[in-house]
Amino acid sequence: MTADSAALLQSHQHHANGSSVATGQQYSVEYLSQLLKDKKQLSAFPNVFHHLERLADEEISKVRVALFQFEFTKEEMSLPEPEGEVQITTEKVFVPAKEHPDYNFVGRILGPRGMTAKQLEQETGCKIMVRGRGSMRDKKKEELNRGKPNWEHLSEDLHVLIQCEDTPNRARIKLARAVDEVKKLLVPAVSS
Q1: E strand segments, the chain
Q2: For residue 139, what are the CA distances in angstroms to 30, 62, 96, 191?
Q3: Which of 30, 81, 151, 173 could staple 145 via S-S, CB 3.0–4.6 A?
Q4: Among the CATH numbers 3.40.190.290, 1.20.5.4010, 2.170.270.10, 1.10.150.530, which is that of 3-68?
Q5: Residues 129-177: pLDDT tens digits?
Q6: Contact, 185 vs 108, CB < 8 A?
């Protein structure tokens, strides 16, 4: 290990265990956010920094599990060549809110500052939206908007709307992956 790489490793370890981390937690949301930014910058150079990409993925996974007890599927999506016209395809996944009335599914799906949903969107190529009764923070506003045009979803049970804009053959694969990942989030985490 060179002196430069040792210094970089030490700086990342200090950042991961820094003073901004809440007591009892090894990692902070800020650290995860920085890792995700680093990963996005690395993706600008595909197939160049193989080891850095792998290390970034491993660290993101480790931090996500430590913070949220959740991990996305790591394998790359293999997409066929586009066939047909690009269209918007949607899928609804209903949230088991009636079976677990005290569990915060909306918070689990969105994550801190929406980071869980954002990364899920980045990894699947689909747009992830929480819709239906109980999807809005402001309950009064939800009641006022129920039944109005563009707010029809508020009359439905709580659900995740997954939207993909691609050719039908590719959209099916992306939607299937997104549905699988969202369903993992709909299993209540065991509280310690």
Answers
A1: 87-94, 127-131, 159-166
A2: 30, 36, 19, 27
A3: 151
A4: 1.20.5.4010
A5: 999 999 998 989 999 998 899 899 999 999 999 999 999 999 999 999 9
A6: yes
